[in-house]
Write a structure and sequence with these properties.
The complex is a heterodimer of chains A (168) and B (310). With 168 residues, chain A is an alpha/beta fold. Chain A contains five helices and six strands; from the N terminus they run H-H-E-H-E-H-E-E-E-E-H. In chain A, strand 1, helix 3 and strand 2 form a beta-alpha-beta unit. The chains are: A alpha/beta (168), B alpha+beta (310).
């Protein structure tokens, strides 16, 4: 048996110090900025710089005047907010969502239901409206690239406002 | 053998019990607040699960202290002092589970390059980025653990209570994970998608290290290993000193010691008990407090002889 003496936990202290440095570093990075959150892949910066919003529209034969109206209102709102013009690409969700994930589109608009396989791969903004469907109700909403939190906040805010207005 | 809790530590045990009830109360409010503000942040989600896990050491301490004071029964003739050892194992496992959970989750997030999405919420007509709310919740989650953890440590050392020490380590894990969560959300706000998972991964190493050390000590206690130090896996200083004193008094014997909860139990082979038998505190090494730790001394003269237990 060997005798032991209790010593302070130097290693634990150095962990804390390192962690504190990490927090300070991150805080320093964000100092003097009021443009938070930011997009890791710079989606909103690119839209502002290029003046173009690349929108994918999921084609659906069931889409009616309501869909066209609400879609136009959201696009109009985003065009004004970002001082940009929309450019459309049409196709199925299977074609458009991978383009969104790769950053080749900024937003995909279409019908999604609760069991949509895309739910985990993209961020779905506040529903713009509920639509009838033979297999249950679907919602019309914008899908956005995961993690692009500035752009997500802008689109989600617009979607929320439009939904509130349509409910009044 | 002593079968009940010594009066020297009774008031400390009562204080520790009060602190554990406070811990359960504050943890409940933290879990509620974090649950309400949780988004898809990795650090936020793991901080919440981990807060749920951290109920465990507080609960097992309360259960163990309730049993520890009970008198021996025909079915449990040695009393319930060893319930503390069992509780120590449960608390150590909870700490390892928390560290492991945090490590695996954050490593997977980094490997899969998951980009956490955090949007806005509407509160009282105001639009707020949910990340700021998460930071408020995470900051709140660090306050009580820092205070309670620091209050528990001196009591745990006085009581030589490894469950309470493990619980204090759990509180440390709580506040560091909360702080990691804040760093993670700040990172996300700055557009650093990896900051969240990296902060959680960084913190998980410290928690795992603490947890594994406590688990090794708990295992040693349950398999009748020699008494271990409170905050590391080395032998306990007072037990080593006690052995030296006993070797002087009983030369040429085999001295075995183990830990039953917070108490030391000694068995001496190759000697008869002295006549008259002095109180156990007589053998307690000078310079070491907590003489109450020495709870039992038994003698075995040799094969076929009677055992004498005091």
């Amino acid at each position: 048996m060997k005798s032991t003496i209790l010593r302070p936990h130097n290693r634990a202290h150095s962990y804390r110090l390192l962690f504190l440095c990490y927090v300070l570093l991150l805080t320093a990075c964000g100092y003097q900025t009021n443009d938070l959150p930011r997009d890791p892949a710079h989606t909103s910066d690119r839209i502002l710089a290029s003046g173009e919003i690349r929108i994918g529209l999921i084609e659906n034969r069931r889409d009616d005047d309501f869909v066209e109206l609400i879609q136009a209102r959201l696009v109009d709102l985003l065009e004004r907010r970002m001082s940009a013009k929309a450019r459309y690409q049409y196709g199925s969700a299977a074609l458009l969502i991978p383009l969104l994930e790769r950053g080749e589109l900024d937003m995909v608009l279409g019908r999604f239901d609760g069991s949509s396989p895309w739910k985990k791969r993209v961020f779905l903004a506040t529903p713009l409206g509920e639509l009838g469907h033979p297999s249950g109700s679907q919602v019309y909403q914008a899908a956005l690239r995961n993690g692009e939190n500035a752009w997500i906040s802008i689109v989600d805010s617009g979607s929320y406002r439009l939904r509130e207005e349509s409910q009044e | 053998m002593r079968l009940s809790v010594p009066t020297d530590i009774q008031s400390d045990i009562e204080t520790a019990e009060r602190l554990e009830w406070w811990t359960l109360f504050w943890l409940s409010t933290i879990v509620l607040f974090m649950g309400l503000t949780m988004g898809s942040s990795q650090a936020m989600r793991t901080a919440l699960y981990e807060d749920v896990l951290s109920f465990l050491p507080a609960i097992v301490f309360l259960v163990a202290s309730k049993y520890e004071g009970k008198m021996a029964t025909p079915k449990f003739p040695y009393g319930f002092l060893r319930v503390n050892s069992l509780a120590f194992m449960a608390a150590a496992l909870a700490l390892v589970a928390m560290g492991g959970f945090l490590f695996i989750n954050s490593a997977i997030s980094l490997f899969k390059q998951e980009h956490p999405s955090i949007s806005i919420v509407h509160i009282l007509g105001q639009e707020i980025w949910q990340g700021w709310l998460m930071i408020a919740a995470l900051f709140y989650s660090t306050i009580a653990p820092v205070i309670l953890g620091h209050m528990k440590l001196p009591i745990a050392r006085r009581l030589n209570d490894k469950v309470l020490i493990t619980d204090a380590l759990m509180q440390k894990a709580d506040w560091t994970t909360g702080a990691a969560g804040v760093a993670g959300i700040v990172g996300i706000a700055l557009g650093l998608w990896w900051a969240d998972a990296a902060a959680a991964l960084f913190i998980s190493f410290g928690i795992l290290r603490d947890g594994v050390r406590q688990l090794r000590a708990a295992t040693a206690e349950l398999v009748d290993g020699a008494p271990r130090a409170l905050e590391k896996n080395d032998l306990a200083e007072d037990a080593v000193a006690l052995k030296k004193v006993l070797e002087k008094h009983f030369p040429g014997t085999v001295i075995r010691m183990r830990e039953t909860g917070r108490y030391i139990v000694v068995h001496i082979e190759g000697s008869r008990p002295p006549e008259p038998m002095p109180p156990l505190a007589f053998y307690w090494p000078t310079g070491q407090d907590k003489a109450w730790r020495f709870a039992a001394l038994s003698f075995e003269v040799g094969e076929g002889d009677n055992n004498h237990e005091f």
